[in-house]
């Protein structure tokens, strides 16, 4: 999907024109994957644009940085203000937000701790990535082992795992891949968490299976609980996907997306539980449900 360029990107304390937001070819992160990122969304609401769960995303950014040994040279309040400044400067009513913290240019080598840490915030208009229903395949690639690669950090290096699995799925004619971990349990998709619905119970893999602790995953769990649905984080086998009454994926970039089939086993369209969660999630992110207004951070005048 082509990127829709905006006017400016925030880099290390200042807004710069989109085309001038550059890094050196010898930046450490480009060679060794020493970067962490966040994906957040701004949605149009009756009161103007608002960022959904901004503080939760920034909290995870700082946790990820600590895990891989990056010191972010800005306080959370500074990045919060910079995020809102960038959204407003680009005039978005709704957009995707990409926070990136990476080791820059200074020296080469795996242990180049002396490289400066660069922080950027970009925003652009981006539709939901997976459409209204997806066909999944189980990837031959296994999810990174948390004991080898810190899957609890949203870091750039481990995303090569997702890139390979996504390419395999697309080449085989599917929309998305689901990855199992080394023990054969379901982990997650390439950039989204997995939920099954069976007998009215929501289940999603835990972080111990290699799944990222998703902000949207947490949101769905809270919305489900408010709807009176039992919600579990538990290990899932491949067969659990085949025998689910319903299945959906969720993530900031995708929203909540029904799964139509897994490995050519049909699940049908969105079931009643998935459809209800899509409705309440849409109301929450667009400010139509007062119960979840605390998740919204205004991002400028309408």
TrEMBL record:
Cofactor: pyridoxal 5'-phosphate
Reaction equations catalysed: L-leucine + 2-oxoglutarate = 4-methyl-2-oxopentanoate + L-glutamate; L-valine + 2-oxoglutarate = 3-methyl-2-oxobutanoate + L-glutamate; L-isoleucine + 2-oxoglutarate = (S)-3-methyl-2-oxopentanoate + L-glutamate
Top-level enzyme category: transferase
Pfam families xref list: Aminotran_4
A single MF term (Gene Ontology): L-valine-2-oxoglutarate transaminase activity
Keyword annotations of the record: Amino-acid biosynthesis, Aminotransferase, Branched-chain amino acid biosynthesis, Pyridoxal phosphate, Transferase
InterPro entries with a match to the protein in the record: Aminotrans_IV, Aminotransferase-like, B_amino_transI, BCAT-like_C, BCAT-like_N, Class-IV_PLP-Dep_Aminotrnsfr
Pathway: Amino-acid biosynthesis; L-leucine biosynthesis; L-leucine from 3-methyl-2-oxobutanoate: step 4/4; Amino-acid biosynthesis; L-valine biosynthesis; L-valine from pyruvate: step 4/4; Amino-acid biosynthesis; L-isoleucine biosynthesis; L-isoleucine from 2-oxobutanoate: step 4/4
SUPFAM superfamilies membership: D-aminoacid aminotransferase-like PLP-dependent enzymes
EC number: 2.6.1.42
GO biological process, one term: L-leucine biosynthetic process
PANTHER family with a match to the protein in the record: AMINO-ACID AMINOTRANSFERASE, AMINODEOXYCHORISMATE LYASE
NCBIfam families reported for this sequence: ilvE_I (TIGR01122), PRK06606.1 (NF005146)
Function: Acts on leucine, isoleucine and valine.
Record-stated family: Belongs to the class-IV pyridoxal-phosphate-dependent aminotransferase family.
Protein name in the entry: Branched-chain-amino-acid aminotransferase
Species assigned in the record: Streptosporangium roseum (strain ATCC 12428 / DSM 43021 / JCM 3005 / KCTC 9067 / NCIMB 10171 / NRRL 2505 / NI 9100)
């Amino acid at each position: 999907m082509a990127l829709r360029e905006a006017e400016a990107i925030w880099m290390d304390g200042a807004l710069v024109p989109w085309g001038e937001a550059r890094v050196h070819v010898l930046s450490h992160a480009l060679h060794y994957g020493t970067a962490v990122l966040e994906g957040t969304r701004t949605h149009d609401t009756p009161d103007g644009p608002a960022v959904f769960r901004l503080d939760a995303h920034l909290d995870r950014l700082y946790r990820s940085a600590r895990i891989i040994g990056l010191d972010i040279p800005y306080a959370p309040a500074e990045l919060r203000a910079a995020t809102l400044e960038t959204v407003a400067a680009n005039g978005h009513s709704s957009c995707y937000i990409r926070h990136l913290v990476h080791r820059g240019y200074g020296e080469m080598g795996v242990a180049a701790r002396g490289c400066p840490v660069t922080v950027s915030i970009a925003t652009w208009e981006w539709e939901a990535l997976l459409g209204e229903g997806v066909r999944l395949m189980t990837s031959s690639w296994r999810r990174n082992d948390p004991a080898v690669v810190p899957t609890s950090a949203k870091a750039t290096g481990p995303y090569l795992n997702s890139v390979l699995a996504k390419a395999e799925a697309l080449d085989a004619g599917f929309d998305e891949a689901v990855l199992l971990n080394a023990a054969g349990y379901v982990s997650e998709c390439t950039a989204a968490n997995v939920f099954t619905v069976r007998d009215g119970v929501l289940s999603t893999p835990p972080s111990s299976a290699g799944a990222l602790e998703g902000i949207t995953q947490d949101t769905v769990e809270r919305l489900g609980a408010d709807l009176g649905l039992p919600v579990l984080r538990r290990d899932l086998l491949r067969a659990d996907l085949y025998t689910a009454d319903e299945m959906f994926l969720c993530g900031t970039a995708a929203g909540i997306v029904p799964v139509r089939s897994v490995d050519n086993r049909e699940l049908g369209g969105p079931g009643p539980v998935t459809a209800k969660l899509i409705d309440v999630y849409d109301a929450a992110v667009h400010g139509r449900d007062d119960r979840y207004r605390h998740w919204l951070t205004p991002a400028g005048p309408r």
